[in-house]
Amino acid sequence: MPDRTIGNPLSWSAQRLAGMGRGLGHAIDGIGGHQAARPQVNRIDLADLGAALGKGARDFAALRSDVIFLVVLYPVIGFILGVWVLNAGQVHLLFPLVAGFPLIGPVAAVGLYEMSRRREAGLPANWGAAVSALSGQVLGPVLMLGLLLLVIFVLWLGAAHAIWAATLGPQTYDSLPALLRDSLTTGPGREMLVLGTAVGFVFAALVLCIGMVSFPMLIDRPVGVPLALATSWAVAKANPGATAAWGLIVAGSLMLGMIPLFAGLIVVLPILGHATWHLYRRAVTFRDPAAG
């Protein structure tokens, strides 16, 4: 009896550690990918964007309660960051934070891609099934790509701070109205707006091109991060007009969703997330190598 009492916890711990080791190994192994067939990049147009948005809205209507549970953390994090920036006396970073927060939006929508995939395949599409599917060889690539977007987001905030320091800085502001007044009515303020908008556009365009289909692609197949990034870039390059229009739709929708204290994102993000999955399905086609 003593042996069993002592042995069971030890055995259980050893099994859990071994399972964690195997899971970590699968996650790391999935970063490079195992998909042999390279995808075909398709032409898409405004009709495809509309169709993807329509399917995204239908997915949201069908999975509303589970979807809201998945994405509620995203607007909460945005609100907390905004409050922290104001309380820390970094008012000049509030607009860059709000404008740049969509840069990490694709990470928050990962569960939505999986739910749309499962619903499309006729599988259970609740939040539990979506979360449980994001493991093994899917987890490593998704985390790696998510880390890349986080680095880009931090670089954008650093660039925005440098632009402020070179124009309106080092003066600090206690209120947002004061910052807006100087930004709109002074030469250095207008220079800050022009430079910030131009640099922000570059960051946004970069994330759009590398994230347009890469996350859904990683959820769909074991392609690995390099191929997912290359394919997303190829889709953007082959469809510059549709890519620009999609970027405007995403940016405009997310900005509107953030106006009421980020609360609107609870609806906007799910629809865009589901729509991104369906846009990926239209933009990328995999062919069975055996079929030639």
TrEMBL record:
Keywords: Membrane, Transmembrane, Transmembrane helix. The chain crosses the membrane at residues 67-87, 93-113, 125-156, 192-219, 245-272. It holds the Pfam family DUF2189. This is DUF2189 domain-containing protein. It comes from the Bacteria. InterPro entries: DUF2189. The keyword Membrane applies.
